[in-house]
Design brief:
DUF4440 domain-containing protein; Nuclear Transport Factor 2, Chain: A; NTF2-like_dom_sf; signal; alpha+beta; 158 residues; DUF4440; 6-stranded mixed beta sheet
Length: 158
């Protein structure tokens, strides 16, 4: 009888560990998915692929540029259309994704170098940024960026 009670107690303790392991697997899978989507989003910004950008940015997006200017989704997409936000290349230097809530929320932070159109004198125009992104998994629309915030980093020469 004591052995049976001990076995039942051990099984009762194993349940939460099993649930935690399952959630961790879901979070890990979500993190991998979000990392791929981050890279695809950067590519879409360079290529001005508005179909992708419309899908990956949530309707309630808050996009804070490195200069402090803030846009909603419509304003940000219009800034790309108008040429105010131009990207010749976006190179990912570091990317870290942490998923939460059983794979339904992701926080991304990283470092990128953006190649912008050349300066008037013809010299390269680069922006080194650290950034934070929050993505939420919408049941109908999939992963969507709800928050972007970036900060300029000094040039390596500085």
């Amino acid at each position: 009888m004591k052995k049976l009670l001990l076995l039942l107690a051990l099984l009762g303790l194993a349940g939460p560990f099993y649930a935690f392991a399952q959630a961790t697997k879901k979070d890990q899978a979500a993190a991998k998915e979000v990392e791929l989507l981050e890279r695809q989003r950067f590519e879409a910004q360079v290529k001005k692929d508005y179909a992708v950008l419309e899908r990956v940015f949530a309707d309630d997006l808050v996009y804070t540029h490195s200069n402090g200017k803030q846009n909603n989704k419509q304003e940000y997409l219009q800034s790309i259309r108008d040429g105010k936000s131009q990207y010749d290349k976006i190179e990912v230097e570091a990317l870290n994704v942490r998923a939460y809530q059983d794979g339904h929320t992701a926080v991304v932070n990283g470092t990128i170098t953006i190649t912008l159109p050349n300066k008037p004198d013809g010299t390269p125009n680069l922006a080194h940024l650290k950034y934070v992104v929050v993505q939420i998994k919408d049941p109908k629309k999939g992963w969507q960026v709800v928050l972007w915030q970036s900060q300029k980093q000094p040039d390596a020469k500085s």
